[in-house]
Amino acid sequence: MNRNKLQKILVLLVTLALLINTSAATCNIVIITDPTGKDPNGAAAGSMSFATNMFQSTFIMSKENHFAVLSGGEGNSTPRLAAIVETIKRLNNGATASEAASAASSYSGIRVMTGGPTIGAAVGGSFDAYVVTVDNNGTITATPVSGGLATLPAGQKGAIIHLRNTHGNPQYGTAETVRQETAVMIGKMIRDGYPSTEILGAAMEKVAKESGEKYGGGGDNLVSSLTTGDMFTPSKMNTTGYPMDEEYSKECPTCGWSVAYPAAENYQTCPYDGTALKTIYAYDALADKLTVTSNSTLVSVYGTDAAGVYETTEELVDYSVKKNGYNSTAIATTINNAINNGNLVGVNYVEPKDINVVESTRAVGVYYKALPEGRTSPSWELPISSSVLDIVGSIQTAIGLILIILVLFRSSLINSFLKRRR
């Protein structure tokens, strides 16, 4: 996370603090299955809550430095945002996870959890959590911790899970049991070799169903820099996000076509090949989004931070790669068609040279150029030159002026004409 991005986060967080009572996530999870940082699915993190306003500020990720900062607590929103910013600053300056998370202790009632594939994980401030460690011989240790500072050391497989119930949650009082059971489940899945991203999805399923702290939120793959972004976050302020234990979409297992709910209720079979559609729940959609497979394409976007551009570009690149392979010309054509159709806004047209393809690592980088004069879309490519349009415009202006003169002086002109006829 560079200085410019940090400044943008500062502005965003302060704005949220002024506009709304920013949410305190009641479930924070960091999972590390490969502390070497080599496994593309070796570290993941995520947040959920029964509360409203679970925006991306509750599961911030640095794509450059591969860490996450999760937050929550019972304190006022302004100190919470200050604790987040201080934690990010410390991590960017090379602090350990425990040194960074200890920033929360300076703010009453605040919690910050942080972690990354090679720095371990830590939670500081106000929390009720379990620290899970998994040794190479398969020994699982789940230690309950509460308040202050708790750490999963760097180089250690394991996890930290914090869970409390939100006041007003119909399942209030279940957090203690679910917290313990989920910690043990996470440890067993780490021992059995599951990737952190799949474990995160399973943990969110259990927490959502059994404790009611179920609204996104979202999650991050800290090694491959993938995030669910706004897939599950609220669409409006002061509302809850998507329920992580409910149906999210339907997908064709043959061609990959998919449709999200509620529109998915109208489809039972694939419109292209008639195959019966598979129902995808939100917790599975999260795991699928974050997990890198042999068929996954890692997409990076440069030159813009406009909302929705990364997610749309990722879908377009995935589609083009599946259809045409790692072909920069085909990818550029797909992106430009989406711009022309209005499916992608806020960016300029791209050329094949703007697409950096590394097929050996299944990576695609898309470099966007800034739009001129604050436009939201490129100018149209018309079949006639702009000079011709200027001439036509001038003629229209002249005709308009003549019509105005005729309207203003119509009485005088009519009288003059009648006099001449006499």
Question: How would you portray this structure in words?
Answer:
The protein is built from 10 helices and 16 strands. The chain has 3 domains: 242 residues, Phosphatase 2c, domain 1, CATH 3.60.40; 85 residues; 36 residues. 34% of the residues lie in helices and 24% in strands. The chain is elongated. The N and C termini lie far apart (86 Å). Helix 4 runs antiparallel to helix 5 and helix 5 runs antiparallel to helix 6. The protein has 422 residues and is α+β, with helices and mostly antiparallel strands. A hairpin with a 4-residue loop joins strand 9 and strand 10.
CATH architecture call of the largest domain:
4-Layer Sandwich
The helix/strand order is HEEEEHHEEEEHHEEEEEHEHHEEHH
Q: Kindly estimate the percentage of residues that lie in beta strands according to DSSP.
A: 15-25%
Task: Label the overall shape.
Answer: elongated
Computed Rg: 27 Å
The end-to-end span amounts to 86 Å
The CATH topology of the largest domain turns out to be Phosphatase 2c, domain 1
Q: How does the helix and strand content classify structurally? A: alpha+beta
CATH hierarchy class name of the largest domain? Alpha Beta
Count of helical regions? 10
Q: Give the overall average pLDDT.
A: 88
Count of folded domains: 3
Percent helix: 25-40%
